[in-house]
């Protein structure tokens, strides 16, 4: 076998880690009920000490502020709530945050976050997420960091609406922020172990935390999760692994240094490794309106393979065949998929480092620096036909690929913040990002090796291609807070952003039988393809304190998410046309912008035992970045929606009842999100369909939850714990391809926990159930690849089967934890 080229290997982890500078600052430790957080943990950082124990601290404006006073719509979930319900995956948070939609898994971006009906495609890793993912103060540009979940978490904050002023790029729809736990003031050791019965998985985690000296604290934490039956395949599926499992390992070290009252520093280093038996997540196949399992249609009908699946989309039994023997052996090297005989797998390794320091330049000025580094190497192999079985049960998986994703990211932010005695305070800041992303994959789009392997190399793949994208972003921002009166506050600011992306495309290998018209030539190199854009994102807010515990605010906000160059273009069709003309503008998608505002009230009554917050909002998104997949032509379609308008109301409440230890909380959201300008997609008469006027995907009109948490003292050393959360969603459209895409009907989910433990949390035994009713719902949908087209000479019905990505089913844990 001829080796044509050397794929770009993993980055130098040690070199990148040494780029982090010593320093950091602490963040507040918080716990609470779902959605409305009631009280701080006793072990908070000193930043929280200025507030009483019923006040929740958030960092919605990049500084510590009371949740009830900050004029931003924030849903906060404390670490205690995450522990009680064994929430350690981003997708599990959706039952606590209405209108938040999460898909984790798959190739491409590795996941998708959407909020209030606005998100980014999970297909392409070229898109930044419209809901920024902020991990310990660093914006992370890959969803693969969340595939292994999270642990040892201090708090999760979900900020709704555009947040470009303080969070910059990729925050047009909101921010999903995770803050991990910091060192404690006293030595503490904790551990937990759980076993999950439905997927037959176990989890063990632990930490040790405390002061090394009077000025230095340390926290070491690690978690291992091993699931045997993440997916169970449909009986008769031609695959080596009839049960697909996964393993996650996460380890984190945190150092905190405060030599005096003028300087403090915090350094976090985390290693994540994820292994699985295939990149395809929980994806079922719907047989569409024709009610049949459509054949895999290849080579213009020269080869038709029976689908094999049973069209049952609710039994959580997946038909995911291994690669067909004709396609399995010859993968362009080097690739970890070589020598595995077409058996799916996935491996991801991530190093993450964050360095935060704060220096008090004077009694009234503080300088804060946040340095973030991320180094990721991910490879997986799977067959994206979701179908195919030959007579005798021989695997017939086609459309296989082995994407190698490599990412190196460095970010640096500086903020100068005032704390003046007068009515005026300000923040000035600068942000820089340098990122290199490499997407290198061998693919079977035509599956030409059913005729014969490439005569020259012996490779059985159609092509190998590499997209290398370098991103450089620079932004400056400034904000001010002016106390017009004792009750009236005016705040606002503006961020200027300049972002440049340069991509090169290489196709070192193309199967000999495909060489000719309609494909680029082997050895193709695009040269640099450049995208550049800049933007001013202003914001202004007026807050009125009507009473000690009632705050009313009105905000005008804008958002910006840079465009870029598509990295899903195949050597056929769009890429070959661009190569012939020398014009690669068809691969460029425009920047996404948002403008609008919201009016809200945050209130507490009855000695702060009852909290009621509400926000009404209206936003218009222009050039929303969208990518779909044409299942018949096997091409990716990247476009910008003309305009999406979202409006609605969010309400959240919490009540610390007079019953000792009983807390209640809930959320209710009304959402109206629809396309309000021309949005053309392929299909229909004239070759296009205009989605103008259609409701946006992942946008339920009504969604909400209600939760309770009751700690019942048995005696001085034992308490009984019971918690529950019921979430409702009235349904939504799951795709953005036609006027009648798949609609997920309304559904309920139910979580509950019962346990017994020490009142101070020294030990606890729990039985935890999530999605107890085993409700299976669809998150996203799209056409199943390799469907029979209209007018085919084989006389087959037009293929209309759909790939439905779904949630995980019921999970039941028994868990033991302790700390001392």
List keywords for this structure.
mainly beta, Maltoporin, Chain A, 22-stranded antiparallel beta barrel, 4 helices, 48 strands, 52% strand, disordered N terminus
Explain what this protein looks like in three dimensions.
With 820 residues, this protein is mainly beta. The protein has a single domain (13-819), classed as TonB-dependent receptor, beta-barrel domain (Maltoporin, Chain A, Beta Barrel), CATH 2.40.170. The chain has four helices and 48 strands. The termini are far apart.
Net shape: globular
CATH superfamily: TonB-dependent receptor, beta-barrel domain
CATH architecture: Beta Barrel
Helix content: under 10%
**How many separate domains?**
1
CATH class (first level) name:
Mainly Beta
Number of separate helices: 4
What is the gist of this entry?
This protein is an all-beta fold and 820 residues long. It is 3% helix and 52% strand. A hairpin with a 4-residue loop joins β34 and β35.
List the helices and strands and how they pair.
Elements: H1 13-17, E1 57-58, E2 65-66, E3 74-78, H2 79-84, E4 100-104, E5 111-115, E6 118-119, E7 131-135, E8 138-139, E9 153-160, H3 164-167, E10 174-180, E11 188-196, E12 201-211, E13 216-233, E14 243-260, E15 263-276, E16 283-286, E17 296-298, E18 303-305, E19 317-318, E20 345-360, E21 365-383, E22 389-390, E23 394-395, E24 400-401, E25 404-418, E26 424-443, E27 463-483, E28 488-510, E29 524-525, E30 529-547, E31 550-561, E32 564-565, H4 574-581, E33 588-589, E34 592-605, E35 610-630, E36 635-656, E37 662-675, E38 680-682, E39 688-690, E40 702-715, E41 718-729, E42 732-733, E43 743-744, E44 747-757, E45 763-770, E46 778-783, E47 802-806, E48 811-819
Parallel strand pairs: 7-10, 13-19
Antiparallel strand pairs: 1-2, 3-9, 4-5, 5-6, 7-8, 9-10, 11-12, 11-48, 12-13, 13-14, 14-15, 15-20, 16-47, 17-18, 20-21, 21-24, 21-25, 22-23, 25-26, 26-27, 27-28, 28-29, 28-30, 30-31, 31-34, 32-33, 34-35, 35-36, 36-37, 37-40, 38-39, 40-41, 41-44, 42-43, 44-45, 45-48, 46-47
